Amino acid sequence: MRFARTPKDDPEINLIPMIDVLLVIIIFLMLTTTYARVAELKVNLPKADAEKKLERANEITVVVGAGGQYLVQSKPVQFRDARELAESLRRAAAGMKEAVVVINAEDNATHQSVVRVMDAARQAGIGQVVFSVEQPTK
Asked: CB burial class (10 A; 0-12, 13-18, 19+) of residue 65?
């Protein structure tokens, strides 16, 4: 008995179904991914071209120095965290109706130091925070 050998075909890997499956997985991942939204502070910045300074009786002036110094109502304040700064703002706002915090920051002051004052104002229950700016020279 002699069996005749038939030539065998080389096995093939069909890539088209695998590509289809990968595309379906990519589309699924794109549709189910949630994108994190960064919490933003909504701040109304004052215009720098104002001619007349608004006089407010309920202002709390906070000066932020470039070296991390803070002055509340022209008095130096030392604190370890925003809670202590909030307490000094609360003391400065005692007796004021709808107090407004005016931040005077030096141009070299860090962003974090200004945000710290804004956070302390929020913790103190003061809803209005404005920034003082210089009028550009012409």
From this structure: middle
